Amino acid sequence: MVNTLVGLTVNGLAMGVIYALIAMGLVLLVRAVGIMNFAQGDLLMLGAYISCALIVDLKLPFWAFVPVALISFAIVGIIFMATTYWPLRNASYPQAVIIATMGAGYALKELVQMAWGSIPRTMLPLVIDPKTGSAAILRFFGVNLQWQFVLIIGVCAMLILMVFILFEKLYAGRMMQAAAQDKYAAELLGIPTVLTIAVTYILVNIVVSIGGYMVAPIYFASTTLANLQLRAFAGVVLGGFGNLKGAVYGSLIIGLVESYSTLKWSSYKDAVVFIVLILVLIVRPQGIFREKIADKA
Amino acid sequence: MKPILRLEQVNKRFGGVIAADDITFSVMPGEVHGLIGPNGAGKSTLMNLISGIYECDSGYIFFDEKDITKMPAHSRARLGIGRTFQTPRFLQRSSIRENLLLGTDLGDHFNYAQSYFGKKGADFEAELNELMQYAGFTFDWDDDITALPFGQRKILEIVRAMLSHPKLMLVDEPAAGLNSSEIDNVISLLTKAAKELGIGILLIEHAMDLVMNFCERIVVINFGKVIAYGSPSEVSSNPAVIEAYLGRDNDA
Amino acid sequence: MIKLLQNKKSQIKLSTMITLLIAVLFLITMPRINKDYKMLCLNLTLIYALCALSISIMLGMGGQMTFSAVAMMGVGGYFAANLCSGRLGFSLPTFPVLLLAPIFSAAVALIFGLILLRLRGTYFTFSTIGLVQVAWSFYSMYKPLFGGYDGISGVPKLSIFGYTPSNYNEWFYVLAAFLVIVALLVERIRKTKLGRSLAAIRDNEVAAKTLGINVYITKVIAFTIAGSICGLAGALYAMHTRYISADMFTFKVGVQYIIMAMLGGVNNTIGCIVGAILVGMLPEWLRIAEGYVNLLYGVGIILLMVFMPMGLSGVVTSIIKSLKKRHKKEVTAIVKKAEGSEV
Fold first, then answer.
1. Residues C11 and C67 reside in one and the same domain
2. Considering CB atoms only, which of C131, C141, C251 is closest to A267?
3. Which of C61, C184, C185, C193 to mutate to test the interface with B (most CBs of B within 10 A)?
């Protein structure tokens, strides 16, 4: 029993940190840019595909892969901003940006299929046992765990911490938030809003794409990867909308709930996660953690 | 005659800021009652407390001797509290007719089903025309609300509030941004409301001559506390009031 | 012509006449030029149009973005499928069930609305996403009520007092009739207290409260009506296609309905219908661009939001407005000239 629990917990945490990456990106875009991005999952998907292309197709060694990947992710971030945000920055209808991101989602799904076909692409596990040539296994409390899950938890946790420090503690983060809340005033204060918004998009996309890279060996790079964003949405809402810390904890909870629910209701995994969300919202409409900013809706 | 509005020791804090501190005063039906104080004193907050947008931390609010302290904003409005805002809040994308209908909807007291199945709303065109004579301008009903200049919109907001047949009107800085003839129109509208229709008016205003000439009683607020309460002459000679507005004279 | 546009009453009459004309032309020509498969698609778009109308109520009038249309459509669809196909051990006549479906869906929508609308703005939107996921999960997994992945088939043909639409062409007229009736009912909302109150909530919730509008209940009422319309759509779908399964009710499809409404003009009844037809028929008309459809679609949506956020009807309305303005300018110019010459 303990074995399964441990296994499920590690699995849940691993997925939870991935959701947390997506969720943080969502919250960052809400707080620093003021938009809700419904193509967040598609960006993760694109990150996975790009990683596959670089590693499997171009066979880049790790030291070359990292900078190339980071640069590509940054470029994608800029392009995404240029297409979905920039033309709409003064839109009178707030939902327009949301719908534009939905459109971008469609386009992205088609683009990856055009570029790399519709068969899911596989990638070797992140940590390989040199003897067997497949996923390295760690024995932990009598349970066989894939090392890569541990790696995912570790790397993503670091990323989460870095983003958190940047955004909440450093001045740069506060500049970005000011830009979102009142562009005019921020510019009067000398904050280059275009720059802060661009930096936000780049940061968000890098974070999310790294998540895609880590998830690709497990779930394969395919268009269904984009659906992970729904879990991340749940995590964001659960944690109290607009709250970075809450989004992270919320996503971890969602990951764990999803994992544990496979014990009893395996096929209703999706339903369980969202029923939990709805129940929490009924009891505590503002989410588990107190909101930091007023709802922009 | 019972007061139409009575506040008893109303308190409200926002974090560390005391917005309302033991506020007590009352407004009689048909009375023009001023609410003044320096900027940031808590006047708009008080309006929001009365209309129900904020909830009091403690204290009581009585409307027509009914305890409305815990009532939601829309119920208070339906009891007969009308409200105007410093910046007029209209539906920007709708026509003037639709915006005014919102006012009469409130006065009509009939529900969605009745409205849907064709019960004709009270014919308010006659009433509207009469009010517009006081308002001093004309318009085409089907124009967009954005076709009206700022001053006319402010006056129209008062008209809309009056169309809902309230017993009390909360008027927030009606003269701000208006020229002198528009201000005259506002005064004649509010006078009609108070003297002919018996509506109690609680008026926030900064234009001192307007306040002193138009209001029968005035309550002065500073830092959320009532610092003076009485007739215009009493209030204008009250040293605490003078200090609040002009600052203490340091050289004795 | 310009003079006609001047008088508001004749303006309305003119636009109604034009709409009627186009509609009648549409109704007559469509079955003639479309073959079987295309007709099926067209019929489906009429059903989608009903869901688009529900979006018009919630988002267009009330300013609340909700994805719940698909979930409610499923409610109505499975209701009809279960009661008519005999899989529960009995089967009821189709027409009464068709009329009961929106009532049943309204009840379900009422319950969920009361629960979910306690949440504000974006929280509410996300909770509707949750609702759709939960619903889809049950629709695709729970065999006893929903038939699992195989869905429910064997829904009998619809029979209205003995008349049975037997081919897609005949269904076209039946669906068009339902659509027209619902469209008229929805349009009426706009002119009444409910429509105004929703507009107030959309544009300025605080002011709405001070105008005596019970925001919570009004939103719930709108949600219930919207859900009821979607339920009707679902039941019609079940009887038209005689088969129902969970992949009709995914989140993705829910997004489609919102896009349909936004394309046509989310706050315009006719716009939503046009939007539904366009989005529904696009894959057919763009058959040539087979592999690129989604890409064009996605890019198209972005462009739509950039250039026409109020949809096609928004474009039409602004054209009319600028014509009016120009006409007014001409009139004042003429009047000025006349006054000038009198002096």
1. no
2. C141
3. C193
Q: What is the CA radius of gyration of chain A?
A: 19
**Which residues, numbered 208 to 267 in chain A, qualify as contacts with chain C under a Cβ-Cβ cut-off of 8 Å?**
230, 233-234, 236-237, 241, 267
CB–CB contact C188 B53 (8 Å): no
With a cut of 80, say whether residue A140 has pLDDT above it: no
In a domain, B12, yes or no: yes
Report yes or no on B223 lying in a domain: yes
Q: What is the pLDDT of residues C33-47, one digit of tens each?
A: 767 777 888 889 999
Kindly state whether residues C290 and C148 are assigned to the same domain. Answer: yes
Distance of residue C151 Cα from the nearest chain A Cα, in angstroms: 16
Buried b (16+ CB within 10 A) or exposed e, A12-36: bbbbbbbbbbbbbbbbbbbbbbbbb
Is residue B206 assigned to a domain? yes
Over chain B (252 residues), the average pLDDT of each successive run of 10 is 90 86 90 87 87 90 91 91 86 81 80 74 75 80 80 88 91 87 88 89 87 89 88 86 68 42
Question: Does residue B251 form part of some domain?
Answer: no
Which residue did the predictor score with more confidence, A239 or C211? C211
Residue of A nearest to C298 (CA): A103
Domain ranges, residue B106: 5-246
> Which residues in C lie closer than 8 A to residue A98 (C-beta atoms)?
65
Give the structural domain span for C20.
1-33
Q: Is the pLDDT of residue A273 over 50?
A: yes
| Residue B86 phi, psi dihedral angles, 5° rounding | -60, -45
Contact list in A for residue C130 (CB cut-off 8 A) is: 234, 274-275, 277-278
Q: What DSSP string describes B9-78? A: EEEEEETTEEEEEEEEEEE-TT-EEEEE-STTSSHHHHHHHHHTSS--SEEEEEETTEE-TT--HHHHHH
| pLDDT value of residue A296 | 32
Chains touching chain C, criterion 3+ CB pairs below 8 Å:
A, B
pLDDT at site A297? 28
Nearest CB to B102; choose among C189, C196, C206: C196
* CATH code at position C271: 1.10.3470
Residues C93 and C170 in one domain: yes
Counting as contact any 3 or more CB pairs under 8 A, the partners of B are C
Same domain, C304 and C338: no
B77–C211 C-beta distance less than 8 A: yes
Q: Give the count of domains, chain B.
A: 1
How many residue contacts between A and C have a Cβ separation below 8 Å?
Answer: 136
Tell me the pLDDT tens digit for each residue of A186-237: 777 777 778 888 888 998 999 999 988 888 888 888 877 878 888 888 888 8
Domain count, chain C: 3
CB-based contact C209 B102, cutoff 8 Å: no
Residue B67, domain CATH: 3.40.50.300
Asked if residue A20 has pLDDT above 70, the reply is yes
Does C156 share its domain with C250?
Answer: yes
What was the pLDDT predicted at B119?
63
pTM recorded for the entire structure: 0.86
> Average model confidence (pLDDT) for chain C?
84
Q: Are residues C255 and C335 in the same domain?
A: no
Asked if residue C174 and residue C127 are part of one domain, the reply reads: yes
Min Cα distance A290 → chain C (Å) is 14
Provide mean pLDDT across the span A11-38: 86
C263 shares contact with chain A (CB less than 8 Å): no
User: CB distance A106–C127 less than 8 Å?
Assistant: no
Of A274, A287, A295, the CB nearest to C133: A274
**CB–CB contact B83 C206 (8 Å):** no
Beta strand B217-222 with B225-230 is antiparallel
CA distance from start to end of chain A = 45
The pLDDT of A124-143, averaged and rounded, is: 69
The whole-number pLDDT of residue A129 equals 66
